[in-house]
Design brief:
This protein is mainly alpha-helical. It has 13 helices and no strands. It has one domain.
Length: 335
C-alpha cells in the first residue's frame, strides 16, 4: 500500500519548481523570444506559471520578454524548399552544366602556347587532396542536416508520447476533469498541426508564449484534488508528462530554426568550382579527357548538393517531418 502523502505540500513544491523553471527557460531561450504585449484582461502563459508559483521572487517583464535577436541568414531560399526533389535536382544539375561548360571553355581557350604548357605542368597529385577536402566538407554538412532531422522527429515523437500519457491518466479523474483534459489536448494538437507547422516550415515559430492549451492543462492538473493514492500518483505523472511535452515542443521549435548558413554553402560551391578548374588545368592537354573528368565530378557534386538541399530544413520540403505522431494520439472530445 502506498504511504499517504501531503497533497498540498506536493502541489506547492511542484508549482514552485515550475515557476523557477519558467524563469530559467525564459533567460536561456531569450535569443529566440520576441516582445509580446498581452491584450487587455488577458495574461500570457508565462505570467500564469509565475502567478502559480508563490515564493519564487518577482520576475521582471524584461526578463520574461527580452529583445528579439538578429535574424539568421539562411543559405537556401525558402521557395526552393517548396519544390519537389525532381525540380531541385533539375535546377542544381542545370546550374552545374552551365558552370562546368563555362569553366571548360575558358580553360581550353587559354590553354595555348606558353599558358598551355604551364597548365600541363600542374601535377595531377593536386586533385586527390582537393577531392578529400570537398568530401570532408560535404560530410560535415550532411551530418548537421541529418542530425537536425533526427532531432526534429524525436521531439515530435516525445511530445506525442507525453500527450498520450496525459490522455490515458486523465481517466483517473472521471467526469468534468477528464473531459476538460481531453479537450485541451485535442486543442493543442490542432493548434500545432494547423498553426505551428506552417510557421515552422517558414522558420516563423518562436518561443515567445507557451501554448495556451498546455498552460491551461498545467493549471488544471495542479488544481486537482486527489481523493486516493492512485489519483495522487496520476496527478504527479500528468504534471510530469506536461513538462516533457512543453520541453519537446520547445526542442522542435528550436530545431525548426536550424539551417545550413550561407558561409557553408559558399564554401562547398567555391571548393567545387576550384576543383573543376584544377581538373581542367591538369587535363588541358587532352580535351576529351578533361570534359569527361569534369562531367563526372560535377555530377557527383550535384548529387550531394541535392541531397543536402532537399533535407536542409526539417519541417519544409519533400522530406519534412510530419505531425502524424501528434495526429495519431489526438483524443476524441467527449461531449
Amino acid at each position: 500500500m502506498l504511504a499517504p502523502t501531503c497533497v498540498s505540500c506536493d502541489r506547492s513544491t511542484r508549482t514552485r519548481t515550475l515557476g523557477q523553471r519558467a524563469a530559467r527557460e525564459s533567460v536561456q531561450q531569450g535569443w529566440l523570444m520576441h516582445h509580446v504585449t498581452p491584450a487587455p484582461n488577458t495574461c500570457t502563459a508565462s505570467q500564469m506559471i509565475v502567478d502559480l508559483a508563490p515564493g519564487t521572487g518577482p520576475v521582471s517583464r524584461s526578463t520574461l520578454n527580452p529583445a528579439p535577436a538578429a535574424r539568421t541568414i539562411h543559405g537556401v531560399p525558402d521557395w526552393l524548399h517548396g519544390l519537389s526533389v525532381f525540380w531541385v535536382a533539375a535546377l542544381v544539375f542545370g546550374l552545374a552544366v552551365l558552370v562546368t561548360a563555362a569553366i571548360y571553355a575558358v580553360v581550353m581557350l587559354l590553354a595555348t602556347g606558353e599558358r598551355g604548357r604551364a597548365f600541363a605542368s600542374i601535377s595531377p597529385g593536386l586533385l586527390p587532396p582537393m577531392g578529400i577536402v570537398f568530401a570532408l566538407l560535404v560530410g560535415f554538412l550532411a551530418a548537421q542536416v541529418w542530425s537536425s532531422v533526427e532531432r526534429a522527429a524525436t521531439a515530435v515523437s516525445e511530445e506525442a508520447s507525453s500527450l498520450r500519457t496525459v490522455v490515458l491518466l486523465s481517466s483517473e479523474f472521471p467526469g468534468e476533469p477528464e473531459a476538460r483534459m481531453r479537450s485541451l489536448v485535442n486543442r493543442h494538437i490542432e493548434d500545432a498541426v494547423t498553426t505551428e507547422w506552417p510557421q515552422m516550415a517558414e522558420r516563423g515559430a518562436t518561443l515567445s508564449v507557451v501554448p495556451q492549451p498546455l498552460a491551461d492543462l498545467q493549471a488544471l492538473a495542479l488544481g486537482l484534488r486527489p481523493e486516493s493514492p492512485g489519483q495522487t500518483v496520476a496527478q504527479r505523472e500528468i504534471v510530469t508528462s506536461l513538462e516533457h511535452a512543453l520541453d519537446a515542443r520547445r526542442q522542435r521549435i528550436i530545431v525548426s530554426q536550424s539551417s545550413v548558413n550561407g558561409a557553408k554553402w559558399g564554401g562547398v560551391v567555391s571548393l567545387a568550382i576550384l576543383t573543376l578548374f584544377a581538373i581542367a588545368f591538369v587535363h588541358s592537354g587532352n580535351r576529351r579527357g578533361a570534359a569527361i573528368a569534369m562531367a563526372l565530378f560535377a555530377s557527383a557534386a550535384s548529387v550531394v548538393i541535392v541531397m543536402i538541399a532537399a533535407q536542409e530544413h526539417p519541417f519544409a520540403g519533400h522530406f519534412a517531418v510530419s505531425p502524424r505522431p501528434l495526429e495519431q494520439v489526438e483524443p476524441a472530445v467527449q461531449h
